[in-house]
């Protein structure tokens, strides 16, 4: 897999440091609350577990699976709810954990869904933000890294379901997906 990577953007150590920093911020901001952590499958699972271990307060966890890429390298423009979460979010504080915010379509879909379900508050924590790809106006409350406009994989992010298990985030060589 390493041979398919043009360059490593964020090492295991970089990611660990960001998870610790974000965990401290979230702990402070949610003091006295028990938020529901909503991990966006499949990409955010590694990031979610690492950040949650750094949060020093009680949390509940749930998962939601949405898709807008459908195996490609660019968003299709349509967001599909693949698997809904099981928790009742009405009156609850929700923290959505996402791997990357690119076009903003997926994130806006999930935030709107939580608000339609009467969540008390909805915040977003993302490992990576790619503002150059933004189509909709939406921002994360907690951001690990701002990434360049390149196709990144690893640490949960995939290309055709591959590369998720890389322990770092790297730029995939264009010849792999072109």
Automatic annotation (TrEMBL):
Listed cofactors: Mg(2+)
GO biological process, any: purine ribonucleoside salvage
UniProt-annotated location(s): Cytoplasm
This protein's GO CC annotations: cytosol
A molecular function (GO) term: magnesium ion binding
Domain Phosphoribosyltransferase, first and last residues per copy: 11-160
Recorded catalytic activity of this chain's protein: GMP + diphosphate = guanine + 5-phospho-alpha-D-ribose 1-diphosphate; IMP + diphosphate = hypoxanthine + 5-phospho-alpha-D-ribose 1-diphosphate
Entry keyword Glycosyltransferase: yes
Protein name: Hypoxanthine phosphoribosyltransferase
Provenance organism: Pediococcus argentinicus
Lineage: Bacteria, Bacillati, Bacillota, Bacilli, Lactobacillales
